[in-house]
Every structure is written in structure tokens, then in C-alpha cells.
Specification:
Layout: E1 14-18, H1 22-34, E2 42-45, E3 56-59, H2 64-77, H3 80-92, H4 97-111, H5 122-144, E4 147-149, E5 155-159, H6 166-176, E6 182-186, E7 191-195, E8 200-203, H7 214-219, H8 226-242, H9 250-256
Parallel strand pairs: 1-2, 1-3, 5-6
Antiparallel strand pairs: 4-5, 6-7, 7-8
Helix pairs in contact: 1-2, 1-4, 2-3, 3-4, 3-5, 4-5
Length: about 270
């Protein structure tokens, strides 16, 4: 990796095209970093409208090994915390992320771990803002994810997060529910993480677990246990009776427990 920056103003701008995945994005940023590209740097996702004014266009293949090498390089030059923040922002994948990731990575290599304190830098502001959004959602679902016990003995949690946070949650619940077999299902992205008591697996829509209809495959020949029905009834009763009516604050409730998450929350199901 280069350690110095040189002007490439004499060269035409290049539009870097990647497949839109997190890995593809990292590889495109790594290639622009390697070529010492200077702002303005153009990036395009494969499913987006391409820049008609770019003088050159290069497609960067998605390569997990290359993405990992790039992250390891930044870790060695800066810190794990810097890479952790970068990955959180990458999970959000907002429009226009790539130039800010490139700037963030470049400055992290030049200035080290102290880049996280550069609160006035536009690249740091952008990356940190979106990283915080992802971290907040992970924090929320550590408390809001609801597991249901099925007759097979496994526990299944359905949810629809704004971001692709299934794996970070799975690492958390691998420690918290280590003795149980469970499945976390992201119904929006048709992705899942499974824990059999010994091994954690990630599943995408093409995986054996999720081939076909998500719930049909995961819940085939299975249904909630009798103990689960009793637990849900007790939890709803507790939720209703513990509240103090005169101190009800719906706005504050939605702030900590957004209404878009209520679909899969047992206590918000008013059918019983």
C-alpha cells in the first residue's frame, strides 16, 4: 500500500464500478487508494446510473481476500476501532459512501487512531454519522429481538431491521443464549443466522435453510410450543399491568422502541 500521496491531476478521472456489496465497495475503495486517486473520485454501483462524463470506467471485482487485506492494512496503520467504525458505516451503505470511505481510510493511515477525534473533518463526520445509526439499531435489537420456542426445541426470532445487522446480533446471542438452538431471521433481506449449540452459521437466500419461502422452510413441520403460548400470555399480562396509565408517554415509547419494529414484538400484539 502507498504511504504518500501524489497529484494525478494530469490523468482523466476514473469511474470505479462495483457490484454494490460491502465487499465490492471495499475493493473499489482499495483500488482507488492503490491508484492514488484524488478528489473528485467517482464510484458507481452496478445497479445505479453511471456517470456519463467519466473519461474512463473500470469495473472492480468483489474479492473477499482483497477486502480483508485492505482492512488489515488500515488496522496496522490505525487501530481496530477505526476499522470497526468503517465497517459499521459500510453496513449502512448510504448513497455517496465510497468517496468518504476512501477519505476516511486515507486519513486513518496518515494520522493513525486519532482520526476518530477529527470531528470537524467531513469524511469523519459522514462515516461516524452512519456508523452510529447502525450501532444504535444493533443496540436496540439486543433488547427488542423476541425469540419464540418451537416444539422442535429451537428458538426462532423474526425481525425486519433497517440495516443488515444479523451477524453482529448473532455474535451477541451466541454468548447470551449459548445453550439453546436458535435461528434469527431477517424477513426483509431473506437472510438468517443459526446456532446449533456449537457452531454459528450465516444463511443467505440461496442457502439450504432459506431456499424457497423463508417461513415455510424454517417452520416446516414445526410450531410454537405450549410453553411458548403461556410465556407470551404472561409477558403480555406483565406488559399491560406494569404500566402506569397516568405516566404513559407514547412519543417517548416510539423513540426507544420505533413503531416500525412492533410487528414482531409479542407485547405489541393486541390480538390476545
Amino acid at each position: 500500500m502507498p504511504s504518500n500521496l501524489h497529484s494525478r491531476s494530469d490523468l482523466p478521472p476514473v469511474e470505479w464500478v462495483h457490484d454494490g456489496s460491502s465487499t465490492g465497495c471495499l475493493c473499489a475503495v482499495a483500488e482507488a487508494y492503490k491508484r492514488l486517486e484524488q478528489p473528485p473520485v467517482r464510484f458507481t454501483r452496478a445497479n445505479a446510473v453511471r456517470d456519463l462524463f467519466a473519461d474512463a470506467r473500470e469495473t472492480v471485482e468483489s474479492d473477499p481476500a482483497r477486502a480483508e487485506r485492505f482492512l488489515n492494512y488500515i488496522t496496522a496503520k490505525a487501530s481496530r476501532d477505526v476499522v470497526h467504525t468503517l465497517l459499521r458505516a459500510l453496513t449502512a451503505m448510504p448513497d455517496g459512501l465510497e468517496p468518504h470511505l476512501l477519505g476516511y481510510a486515507r486519513k486513518a493511515v496518515l494520522h493513525g487512531a486519532c482520526i476518530v477525534h477529527a470531528h470537524a473533518d467531513p469524511d469523519v463526520i459522514f462515516v461516524h454519522r452512519h456508523a452510529r445509526k447502525v450501532s444504535l439499531e444493533i443496540h436496540r435489537f439486543k433488547g427488542l429481538l423476541r425469540f419464540q420456542e418451537f416444539k422442535s426445541g429451537r428458538f426462532i426470532a423474526l425481525y425486519e431491521p433497517d440495516y443488515d445487522i444479523t451477524l453482529p446480533l448473532a455474535f451477541h446471542f451466541r454468548r447470551r443464549l449459548a445453550s439453546q438452538r436458535w435461528v434469527i431471521l431477517d424477513c426483509r433481506r431473506q437472510q438468517a443466522a443459526t446456532w446449533d449449540g456449537k457452531r454459528l452459521n450465516a444463511e443467505n437466500p440461496d442457502g439450504d435453510l432459506l431456499t424457497g419461502t423463508l417461513l415455510t422452510q424454517c417452520l416446516a413441520d414445526d410450531e410454537p410450543s405450549a410453553a411458548e403460548a403461556r410465556s407470551q400470555m404472561l409477558w403480555k399480562t406483565f406488559h399491560r399491568t406494569v404500566a402506569i396509565e397516568t405516566r404513559t408517554n407514547p412519543a417517548l415509547q416510539r423513540q426507544f422502541m420505533p413503531a416500525r419494529y412492533w410487528k414482531h414484538l409479542t407485547e405489541m400484539d393486541e390480538t390476545a
